Amino acid sequence: MALLRSSPASLALRTQPKVPIASRRPFSSSRAHRGYDDTVQNLRIGKHTRVIYQGFTGRVATGNAKDSLAYGTNIVGGVTPGKEGEHLGLPLLPNLRKAKEQLKPDATAVFVAAPQCGKAIEEAIEAEIGLIVSVAEHIPLHDMMRVFSILRTQSKSRLVGANAPGIISPIGSCRIGFQPLPTFAPGHIGIVAKSGTLSYQTVASITRSGLGQSLCIGMGGDIIAGTNMVDALRVFESDPETAGIVLVGEVGGRAEEDAADWIVDYRKRVGEKAKPIAALVGGIVAPEGRIMGHAGAWRGPGERSAKEKYAVLEAAGATMVQHPEDFGGVMKTLLSQSGRDVGKIVGNAKKQQQQRGYHTMRRRPATAPYRQESRITSNASKEQRRGLLLGPDQAPTPLEPYLSQAGVSLSDTEAPEDAFHLGVTVDRTARSPCLAVSPSTQPSQLSQRLRHFPYDWREGPTDATIKSAIAHMQLDAAPPAARAQTTALLRALAKMYTEKEAVTLSAAVSIDTPSGNLVLHQPTLHLQFDDAAFRSCARQEAIHSPRRKHLEDPAELEAETHGIVFLTLPSPAAASSTAAQPNIGTLVNGAGLAMNTLDALAFQHSGTATNFLDTGGKATAATVKKSFELILQDPRVKVIFVNIFGGLTDGGMIAEGILLAFREVDMRGLPVVVRIRGTNEGVGQRIIAESGLGLEAFDGFAEAAGRVVELANR
C-alpha cells in the first residue's frame, strides 16, 4: 500500500544553529506563477542551450569543459569569484549576476566542492538560471534540504542532482555533467537513473542495439534529488524525439513507486499510443539496515524493499530486466510490439550519428587512453561518506537534553505491543523533513500504517501538522498529559533533527498506565546522523568525533580510508542450511553496479556473494589491490568476480591493478574472472589477455557470471 502524504503548510520560523539559515522570502525576484513542478521542461536541453560553469577555472571544471566543448555543448563562459577575463577563450566573470546579464545562460554546471555547493546553488536560483546541474558528492543533507525549501518558492529554476552525473542530450550535442562521452550515441531512447555506473551500462546496451539516446537524466544517489523519475517521465512523454523510456532505480525511497503510479495514469490516458517503458531496480538482495554505497541507498521505516518496488513497477506495466546489458534487446522488442518501426528508429539514429561523425568514437578509439575526469568532492577527506548510526546504548547522550525539554522519560524496557512509532525523517518525494508516525510498531503493520507529514525545513512543523500526526497515531482519546508530551516530543525531535543534522530520529513510545505519561523506550531508538556535515564542513563534531569504531567491521573501516565501500554479507542462519552459502568475492566499480551484480548473480545464476564492494569512481591500481586484500580476508571466498563498467573508471587502470594484486598479494590460488567494459575497455581486455596469469576474461555479463558460479560450485 502506498504511503499517504499530506501537503506541507505555511509554517512559523524557528531559527536553528549550526546549519546556515536561508531567508524566508521567495528566492526568485519574479512572481512565482505556479511552482517548481512547472520547471520540468527546462530539462529539454540541446544545441540551443547556453551553458555556463560555476567554478569555471578549477582543474576539474576546466577539463570537463574542454571535453564538453569538443562534444558540441554550447558553453558561453563561466564564473569564478573574484576573477574576470577569459578562460578557454570564453568570458570569465566574477559573479553570477554579471554572468546572467552578459552571457544570458539557460543552464549552469555547478563544479563547486561540497562545503560551498549549497550556497552556489542558491546563488543560481536567485539569478533565475533555468537549469542547475550539481555534480558534487558529499554535500550535507541539511544544506540540500535548505536548497529545496527555497526551490519550492519559485518557478524559474530546475535542479538536477546533487551527487549526480548530470544530464546529456546525445541527439542535441549537449552535455552538462561528467558522463563518459564514448558510451553515448544520438538516438531515441530516454533514460533516467539513480546510479551513474548502471546508467552508463544501460546506455552502452542501448548504443549497441543501434537505438541511441535522446536524453539521459542522472537523478543521483543522494537521499533527495532535485529531479526525480516522475519529472523525467513527464519530459519523455512530451518529447517527440523519445520513442521509448528506461528507468534505473535502486533500494531506498519511493521514487520508483511514484514512477509506477505515473505509469498507471499515463497508460490510462494514452492507451495503445503509450511509449514502451523498461526498468530495473538494484539492491534486491541488499541486507536490511545497511547503506549500500550511495548516501540514499537504504530502506527507511515503512518503505518498500527493492524487490517490492520491482513488483510495483511490473504491475504498473513496465517491462522489468535483471541486468542493464539486456536493455537494448528488450527495448527493440517492446518498440516492435507497440507497433513502432524499429528499423526506421535505428535508421534515424544511425543517420544522426553519421551527421555528427559520432566524433567521440573517432576522437577516442578503443586503444587510446581516455582522460579520466574526477568528481567534485570535499577536500576534508578522501574517505567514502556514509551516515553515522548510533545504537540504543549510544543514542541517549545527544537525545537527553531534548527529552528533558519535552518532559518525556526514557525507559530501558522493551516496547509493549500497543506502543506507537514516532520520529522525524526525510520525505524523499516532498524533498523535505517530515514527522513519521504510526499507531503500531509491529513490523508486519508498519509499512501499511506509517504515514509522513512533511514540513518546511526552514520553519519547522506547524501546530496543524503536529495535530494531524497525533490524530494518525490515534492518541485523541489518550490522557491529556500524554497528548501534550507527544506534541512536545515531536517539536523537540524536529528541533534536534535540524540542530544536529540528523537523517532519521525514531523510537517507540507508549503510555504508562498508572501515570498517563509518555514513555520512550531506549532499545527501540534509531538515531542516524549525516556525517557529510562533519567530514565535508567540520560541523557536528560532538556527534561524530567520538565514533565508536570497535562496534563496526574492521574491514569496512579499513576500506573507508582507501575510498572503498565494503560490506561483508552474512551467511544464512543455521535454520536455513539449505540456502546457498556465500562463496563469491565481488569487486565492482560503482554502488549501483555493485548492487546489481549481487542481484544478477543470485537471481539469474543462483550464486551468492560474500561481500559488496564499490571501488569508487576515482579508483587507482592501488585501490584495486587493496580491494583484493579485503576480499581475501574472508575464508568463504572460492572465486573472485571483477565486474567493471568504466565511466570515470579506466579499464586499463583496473587491469593494471589486477596485475599488481597478483604480484604483491597472496591470492590463495583462487580463480579470478574478469569482465571489463566501458572506458578504455580494449586496453584493459588486452592487458588481461596478455598477462599470462590464467585470468578468465569475458565481454558479456551473463557468460562471466555463469563461469563464476561454475567455479564457485566446484
Task: List the quaternary state of the chains.
Answer: single chain
Q: Give the distance, in angstroms, between the N- and C-terminal Cα atoms.
A: 44 Å
Q: Give the mean pLDDT.
A: 88
Secondary structure tally: strands: 28
Gyration radius over CA: 25 Å
Principal-axes shape call: globular
The portion of residues assigned to helices is 25-40%
Strand content: 15-25%
Biggest sheet statistics: 8 strands, mixed
- Class derived from helix and strand content: alpha/beta
Unreliable stretches covering 5 or more consecutive residues: 1-32, 358-373, 378-386
Helix count, DSSP H or I runs of 4 or more residues: 23
Structure description:
This protein has 714 residues and is α/β, with parallel strands linked by helices. Helices cover 36% and strands 19% of the residues. Strands 15, 16, 17, 18, 19, 20, 21 and 22 form an eight-stranded mixed sheet that branches. Strands 3-4-2-1-5-6-7 form a seven-stranded mixed sheet, sandwiched between helices. Strand 17 (420-427) and strand 18 (432-438) form a beta hairpin. The longest helix is centred in the last third of the chain and has 20 residues, at 480-499. The chain is globular. Mean pLDDT is 88; it is low at 1-32, 358-373 and 378-386. InterPro entries: CoA-bd, NAD(P)-bd_dom_sf, SUCC_ACL_C, Succinyl-CoA_synth-like. GO terms for molecular function: succinate-CoA ligase (ADP-forming) activity; succinate-CoA ligase (GDP-forming) activity. Residues 45-139 form the CoA-binding domain. Residues 349-396 are annotated as: Disordered. This is CoA-binding domain-containing protein.
